[in-house]
Structures are given as C-alpha cells and as structure tokens.
Amino acid sequence: xxxxxxxxxxxxxxxxxxxxxxxxxxxxxxxxxxxxxxxxxxxxxxxxxxxxxxxxxxxxxxxxxxxxxxxxxxxxxxxxxxxxxxxxxxxxxxxxxxxxxxxxxxxxxxxxxxxxxxxxxxxxxxxxxxxxxxxxxxxxxxxxxxxxxxxxxxxxxxxxxxxxxxxxxxxxxxxxxxxxxxxxxxxxxxxxxxxxxxxxxxxxxxxxxxxxxxxxxxxxxxxxxxxxxxxxxxxxxxxxxxxxxxxxxxxxxxxxxxxxxxxxxxxxxxxxxxxxxxxxxxxxxxxxxxxxxxxxxxxxxxxxxxxxxxxxxxxxxxxxxxxxxxxxxxxxxxxxxxxxxxxxxxxxxxxxxxxxxxx
Length: 359
Known about the structure:
Blueprint: H1 4-39, H2 55-65, H3 76-92, E1 102-105, E2 108-111, H4 120-141, H5 145-176, H6 181-187, H7 198-201, H8 203-216, H9 228-231, H10 241-266, H11 275-285, H12 290-320, H13 328-355
Antiparallel strand pairs: 1-2
Helix pairs in contact: 1-2, 1-10, 1-12, 2-10, 3-4, 3-10, 4-5, 5-8, 5-13, 8-10, 8-13, 10-12, 11-12
C-alpha cells in the first residue's frame, strides 16, 4: 500500500462523497415532487428541461439569487451560522461510510471510504447529534416565536429519539464487537449470503432505528419542528434565499446519510449474494485476474449499495405522502414509553441469544 498518496486518495474520496451527497440532496427535491405527484394522481414538474429534470437546478439558481432577508432584532451572526452548521454536520457524517470495498491496482490498495476510523459508529451518532444545534441556533436567532417553538420541539424530539436509536445500536455492537463501519460491513459478507446480514439477526433493532431515523431527520410523521399548520414553517420561518436552501438541502443530506447507515448496519452494505461465487467464476472460466475480478465485485457492490440507499430514500418519501403527522404528545409518548423500553428489551434479548450461541 502506498503511504504518501493515501492522504490524496482520501481527499479525493471525501470530495466525491460530499459532491455526491449534495447532488443526491438536490435531486431528492425532484424525486419528492415526482413521487408526490404520482401518489396524488397529478402532473409533477414538467417545465424545466425534459421531464422536469432541470427543476432542481432552477431551484438552486432561485435560492442563490433571491433577496437576503434579516428579521428585525435577529442575531445576524447566529442567524447565518445556524443553517451553515446544519449543512456542515450533515456532510461530515457521510465521511466515514464505506461505499465500497477495496480497489487493487498492482501493489496499491484504495478504499472507497473517506475516513476509516475504528469509532465510525460513534462518529456518525455524534455528528448527527450536533445537527440539532443548527436548528436550535437558527430558531433562537430569528427572534420569532414560531421559530423558537420549532427549535424547542426539535431539541426535545432529538433528545427523545436519540436515546432509543443509541440503544438499538448497542445490540448491533454486541453482535459485531466493533464500532468500525467497515468491519461491521465485512462481518456481514460471510459466504456472500444475505442471511448473514444484521437485518436477520436484528429485525426489532432495525425497526426501532428506522422509526428513530424519521424523527432525527424531521420527516413526516415526525416533522413537528416545522409543521406548517401550527408553526407556519417552524425553525426556518424567517429564512429566505440560500440560507433556507441550506436547511432544506441538509434535511435531504441527512436522509441520504440515514439511508446509507441503515444499508451498512443492517443490509450488508456493499455486500451482495453470490459475490464470491461470481468472483471465482470470473477467475476460473473467464481468465480474469483475481485483482480484476475483485475490482469488478467492488464496483458492483458500490452500485448495489446505492440501490439500497435509493430504496430507503423512496421509502422516506412514500411515508411522507401517505401518513399524517402525529400530535406532539403522541410523538413524545412513542419515544419514551414504547421505543426506549423496546430498545432495552432488544438488548436483553440479543444478550441472551449470544449467550446461548444462537447468533
């Protein structure tokens, strides 16, 4: 492995991951509109470009060129810093996600991951937890009662559901014995079969994590911090121009990251069924080198990982246009009286299954 270019390769991967995150977030707005139009039996965006494909670009131009607005009495510095912090934390959490295995070129090995740290799970959980500060700062700095109420709701909602989410991850940690997202992914590649994925071992933990992911990303039915019927627009009521765009795009980046984390933790990440059989077949019957066959498997795994991610993103959007939002008391009751006890039960159940050698 080359030591000197490693930092350069990591920089390239991080740049590509950040660029992909922003691109996917941008076109998630288009997908949201198309899915909403399909479910509501109406025509979606169809004016900007063929099939409306240029609509996200038109929205971006609009956001950049709209007039800047600062409310009377707002804290200007924090008013600007809030959406910037929300976007920065959303992008930072994607840096440790393994989007593919290793690419081998001669004696050089390159990992399709921005940063490989042995506490990747804690990194994602910690950085995502910081994202709520962007909402709180923006809501408080706006000098608007609706914005402040939205920020308070966001803080209490995130605290409530982060507890259940953290407890659900403890069960995964008990099975894997590591906090490295790459190691967790590789442990699910035994024989290349799907029944070694953690979704088989942790179905209850996955459901808890999925529900908490909706709450952490402020998506329907947990979009109480910005519900229009009660709070006008919640924490971003006073925002316009690209500052509003940063808040909106950070939500979609968080959806992308949450989908990637669920794919990595529970659905095998870049692993797919019969990957090793395909590699051996290429080497034995098609005269591929082992390195070439492994590189092809890595590329296919990355493509299929993004397929899993896009499937979860579609699910997020489908739920938004299917279910109504909860009342706030229902939201808090679900987190404290149902999900947290279920998470503790899941930890005890996992410990028992590990003790008796079942998993």
